[in-house]
Amino acid sequence: MNMNQVTLPVSEIEESVDFYRRMGFLQIVDTPHYARFVCPEGGATFSLSLETEKFTNGGAIYFEDENLDKLVSSLKEKGFKFYQDPTDMQYLWREAILHDPAGNKIILYWAGENRLNPPWRVNKHA
Q: Domains in the chain and their CATH numbers?
């Protein structure tokens, strides 16, 4: 099994599409109520879905970049505001946090080998 994509709710699709395109994602689907993007590296995709009702998204979407500090600096130069600058976390990842125009939490990070193989990894099956 492989994860295909994550879809984020947004209240203003045009503003959110512009936000993600300025971050460097390639838009591959464009409709008045739905947009889909492919990540600059690898083949992962994610999408935005226009929500007309009030919503709260408690989740977070993670984008990995080996040159995290350089990426954050570049995005700040473009006017992106960060809630948290790149920080070494206790779980061995380095993370920076920002929010998209709809309030969705975005975590830019670098974990290296610790992404799939942290020192506390277990291998459990049903």
A: 5-115 (3.10.180.10)
Residue 122: CB atoms within 10 A of its CB come to 5
Rounded-to-integer distance, Cα 31 and Cα 63, Å: 24
For residues 58 and 103, what is the distance between their CA atoms, to the nearest angstrom? 10
**Which pLDDT tens digit goes with each residue over 41-87?**
888 999 999 999 998 888 999 999 999 999 999 999 999 999 999 99
What's the pLDDT score for residue 42? 86
Q: What is the pLDDT of residues 29-45, one digit of tens each?
A: 999 999 999 999 888 99
Cα separation of the two ends of the chain: 15
Residues 34 and 68: their CA atoms lie apart, in Å, by: 28
Cα three-residue angle 83-87-88, rounded to 5 degrees: 150
The CA–CA distances, whole Å, from 104 to 42, 62, 99, 114 equal 22, 11, 5, 25
